């Protein structure tokens, strides 16, 4: 194992819900993070507008809050910007980069309008600038685009990158309700803001499309270059018509590389129900890629929320920290733990079992009892058609999860039960 | 833009279908790769068993083939191992690492049995060891696990990581056929090997599960630690029964982190049809993750094939090359091109249009003609219910892709047509 070096100094700019979740995780998961980085991550300050306001959910001690972000960023090895908006975020990030800090940001508005300035500054100074959380929240998408697919050619990026509008359109599709009613409900549930303009007019997706097109095609695309239409014109009748022809309406960000150049657009789009994007429900995000070598790829997950966004921010932070230490040849695999490996007998799972039983009153209860006796509960039971020729019937059961050994023993026991003619099939079940 | 440094020397071990695709791409895409790396990648040799055998599909000049892999690896900055099997792959990789080369491999058998030896050697020497292609082929999965999710805690990995068995089970589900018949067909189509043991007995998935569990849980799991059951016992009746209760059978690799340790297993598994893994068809792969912060994530794509695998290998190679040059602070965004950005008018797409038309003979033909006159062809047309009250009927059309400007102009033109009472809805369509 590598010797653990001295702590890396982390500055946090902004302490809203995402900032609080990041700060909380830096404390709660400090030991694991230090092992993965090769050095402890020390939070040296949190820049906020009002340092006297308590933020207990962040777990940050009051003396770490400061209103002097300018000075804070010059003292840090790593700066995490979660303030949002263009200024002062841009100036602070540039200042941090100038001082040689690796920077992490989730600021799609800034990146969409002025990404190239930041990219160039980080590149010039030889420091990390990463922004996984700016598009599709928790989904590892930008790093795969920048790194994993660096030897391939991306031809198309097509994604659901706004959870609010997907929630609304999905709900309209499922219930047949009108947009205004579903929007009101989304606002009540907290899925949509009181002022939903940025989401429903497509502006949020527009900035993300600019970032995606830039990374995917290695070229400069700004938010204003992206054609943008929102969902306010989508009617219940449109959704119904789409359904009739086997389609569903999604707000998509679509970026294409053509022989003539690139195009990027956001608009409500009909997609066939057989398309992988059609089965993205609720507020989930998903991005579909088409590349020259890999072909079709899709990434799916939560696009927003404090903890999912914190996952993306922390992943960037750990990578930037690793690069500070060892030149980024990758995670230290030799820091592996030696966790115990459980045998299959101790693994918890559900079983699907098909039995041939005597078709007599009371059999079903007696079979159920042999599970109950082992403390295994039955999720569902289904009796097949009676076959009068041999007086047997099939019985299918799905159990609730239990230790594999207990399930296996119960099934073995069933073979000895008089009512049970045969155990025809035993398969495990997951994802219930 | 960074000054381009001197070429990085690349050695290729093995020149089968994947090796040939990698070599071909190194030549065909040399300029783009050099721009993304910051230095040209120069192929200095390809180690093969028989150097006299021509391999025209690789595009490699005959003088680069050698049988002396031992010497080749000591002369390279970057070594790509695509021989497979445990020896001599292990010795050659260790030798390359010892000489300070960054190494890329797709060798799941070797990593599954002896990954930790290789990880430790690379870590000790401070060089890259990457192996994205070893699990789920083209899908960027291992890099996200090692890097993007480095600040999160993965609790479960559940995936379809063998395309052959997914093809077989999917076909059984769709057609009701027996396994033996579908297997025979898969062999004829080239989806299954003449000796399908490694796939159908689950051994291929078993090695991949070991790699996934190791990376996901930062611990050591070897192939032999993974409980493994293949698909040979799955019957058409099982599939039919699963269908009746809203489930589908998939061969899954499942790795769990529990308070007591970790478990890893491969077996046929019933999953609800509503689960994202249920809609993975044909020979596609997909891996579903459950993490503490990000929640549910899924990665989907092609798990095998020469070009998809080459995509993963080349992504690793570009990253390793970047790390050789600049300590890996990330891709150089300032190397961005300035590609033209096409306006929406020049973007190609399909339209869905709903019209209210006079319900008279010949109207449908006249509407179709106005598209034809603009060179736009109609994919489908559907006439709604006649509303006798006002003598109008609705007409829905989906066009084939055309330039957005031409479509918009045609729709505008329709508004002037006497037969057309109203253009009720115009939406774009993708994914047809």
From TrEMBL, chains A, B:
One Pfam family, short name: NAD_binding_3
Annotated ACT domain residues: 352-428
Binding-site residues, NADPH: 108
EC number: 1.1.1.3
Keyword annotations from UniProtKB, A to Z: Amino-acid biosynthesis, Methionine biosynthesis, NADP, Oxidoreductase, Sodium, Threonine biosynthesis
Protein name listed in UniProt: Homoserine dehydrogenase
UniProt-listed InterPro entries: ACT-like_dom_sf (IPR045865), ACT_dom (IPR002912), Asp/hSer_DH_NAD-bd (IPR005106), HDH (IPR016204), HDH_cat (IPR001342), HDH_CS (IPR019811), NAD(P)-bd_dom_sf (IPR036291)
Enzyme class of the recorded protein, top EC level: oxidoreductase
Protein residues bound to NADP(+): 13-20
Highest taxon, organism lineage: Bacteria
Assigned protein family: Belongs to the homoserine dehydrogenase family.
Record-annotated active site: 208 (proton donor)
Reactions performed catalytically: L-homoserine + NADP(+) = L-aspartate 4-semialdehyde + NADPH + H(+); L-homoserine + NAD(+) = L-aspartate 4-semialdehyde + NADH + H(+)
